[in-house]
Amino acid sequence: MELVVALVSDLHFGPEASFGGKLRKLTGEAPELTRAFVRRMNEVTRPDLVVNLGDDIEDEGPEADRERYGACMAALRGLKAELFHVAGNHDVIHLSEAELLSAWGRPEATRLHYAFDRGGFHFTVLHTRERKDHDISLGPEQLAWLGEDLAASPLPKIVLMHHSAADQDLRGNRWFEGSPHICLVRERRAMRKIFEEHGVLAVFNGHLHWNHLDVIRGIPYVTLQSLIENLDDDAPGRPAAAHAVVRLGPKRIVVEIEGAERARYQFDRR
Fold this sequence. Notes:
- The protein has 270 residues and is an alpha/beta fold.
- Helices cover 23% and strands 28% of the residues.
- It is built from five helices and 16 strands.
- The chain has a six-stranded mixed β-sheet, with helices on one face. Strands 6-7-10-11-13-12 form a six-stranded mixed β-sheet, with helices on one face.
- Helix 1 packs parallel to helix 2 (62-76).
């Protein structure tokens, strides 16, 4: 039996956000792009569950962030499928853990890292923490929890996170080229060793604003493009409108990236 999981990432509800003096994030289009994603999921894809990989807002201040995070959650709650969340670095700058958990409304999530089982699979959600312009870290406590969580489940395992645990080649990435410390998790080698020891099937993340695939020691690490990324060099812009549909089957995993930059990956299960 197949489990269909849809993924979306980096919705960035918020004020206009330029980078290097150019319009890179189409934040003004975030509400409509999110509503279009919800319509497609409800009317066409009809997944079993949807995972939001984080960075739902373009942080500005506590009051504005609270309002925009609420607007994003309200739009996503239009999904007919069950909805799960990952915390992104922008989400936690002005909003507390308690505020995010309340907005999620998920009984499984008593903290920002948690786990759940659906459709014969075990899903582990990690919370990678960013110290702005310094590094990305999981921390020793959560790293220990990760090993314990994966060891305790006999089910096939999927890991969901915001930043990347792969050693990505960042050449050509207009956000992070030359800056692995602000997009790749510092403890990624230790994390990958735990994934390998406990039979993780695949790892999914957002944050880097491009589609990217690494396969390391048999495990695919899939990075999903931002929903609101501007595919043009500047204004007026052309949105990526990216999302992924992941089909978890008994023999293989098929990942279809949809939107303006389409891709398809297929992996046999080990």
